[in-house]
Request: fold
Amino acid sequence: MNDLARRWAVAGLLLALVLLPAVASRYVTYLVIHILLLALNAVGFNLLFGQTGLLSFGQAGFYAVGAYTCARILLAWPSLLPGVLGGTAAAALAALLLGSLSVRHTRIYFAMLTLAFGMMIFSLAWKWRAVTGGDDGLVGIPRAPLELFGLVVALPTVERYYYVVLVAAVLAVALMHRVVHSPLGLALRAVRDSEVRAEHVGLNVRRLRLVAFTVAGAYAGLAGSLLPPLENTVTPPIAHWTASAEPVLATLLGGIRHFAGPLVGAFVLVAAKDVIVRFTVHWSLVLGAVVVALVLGFRGGLAGALEALTVRGARVRPVSAAAGEEGR
Amino acid sequence: MEVFAYQGLIGLSSAMYLWLVSAGLTIIFGVLGVLNFAHGSLFMLGAYLGYTLYGLAGVPFGLAVLGSMAVVALVGAGVERGLLRPLYGLDPSYQLLLTFGLVLFLDDLAKLVWGGVFRIPPIPGWLQGSVSLFGRPYPFYNLFLIAVGLSVGVGLWWLFDRTWWGRAVRATASDREMAAALGIRTPTVFSSVFMLGSALAALGGALSTPVRPVAPGIGAAMIVQAFIITVIGGLGNLRGAFAGSLLVGVLSSYGTLWFPEFELFFIFAIMAAVLLVRPQGLFAR
Reply:
């Protein structure tokens, strides 16, 4: 896809997202909110995995830190912005602390360490009744009004809340696009491709990994803190390691080497699940088979497969230019 | 004091399931370099097959256990040959992701075939009864489990240390190319190691059928514990896996008795601490 076509595609997508509540049912709107939340989480995760080369199995922990913090704030002070910002900040802080320990390792040891940290957060959510409500979770969380510059917007309907989530998601994804295409993004890819070479050109590998980890944690936390106002409850399963797999699967499905990969993956994952569960309860069976097939045959994901098609159809790009496209 | 010793013995017998599963996980990681997320699902598969043969079809218990080991070993061979082999040489994250896909697939397949119901068949006659230890009745079946676990430990030591096959495996694990140059068929070694590991997971699963409920979730619960153990013992270290199993089995037995609130938290905290302070494992030489 060339630049112009890409711009038109983005504009069309944004228009469709803005018009959605007017044309779609409330259920579809609700579903798209979940797509946006997963997309936020997956976009953050891919900064860590696709860009920096670190596979985290603990993102659900930071998602839960965001969700629980936002829920506690909203229960005490029913105003949306402090809840969401507080939840995001708490998740970023948790990611900074745990990340400073996790980035000592890479590959399998890193994956195991993030799994352990994520499960520590899960067990706190499960057992620390005084703060998290234990296995009952927190209930009765208000969808508090959005208060900004003295303006108070009540959010009684799912449709109105949808626009809050949409604005947050668009801003966060645009910001991530800037990060990925900034010198920082370039440095992260250098770390991914060769740790030794990155060190030799003077990059602080561990600090770069920590930056990626913290940003990924903040994105998971933002997604998590947007959840309680929608559902009015938070329960421990959102922190479990099996929930950590969701952003991983979305990213893998969409394609780790493309900026749009996690977004496409989040859409396909949520939409496919919604369709498949109408026909069979054995959704995991299908998903598992798809994951195996993807890893074996389509490691570029849907975005990679799509690009292979359009590139072949349009023009053959020189190898060097194609290599420069990595990470888009 | 007697409560302490008795509870330790209870923990010791549940440590044997952990040992059987983490032994398989360890030898597969040690030789193939693959961290098999689906190893817990093989345990679950072993449990379901053991249940089907022994609890439903009425096959004698010993035969049911062996049958379930054989079937799961074949499944393991299929996974290694068909799915993992194309991924050797790629970033290990892909192997982790593939085996994670298998977890989703196998756990749901079990639900499809057997349903999600909890069932426990009776303990076979020759393993019923109990002995009196520390003034309390201790099930004879638990003693049997401990005996099986220890025999597997000795058997593995003999296999790896004393046989030609074991030497070929160790050679392959330390330098694959050199082993191949010496005429060892390394692909066969990989397959046989994966089959052995799978059979051990199935042994643990099948042995659990008369005392523990069988359900699709037991695989996911087991793999996390096995990860903790192999990390504490040192990835790829069989002796460490044995010591780690005893540690986790006995500690969580005391944990559920004395501080059930934060047992899970402390076990994961121990895992994280080991990874940070001593990533080669507590029992590395």
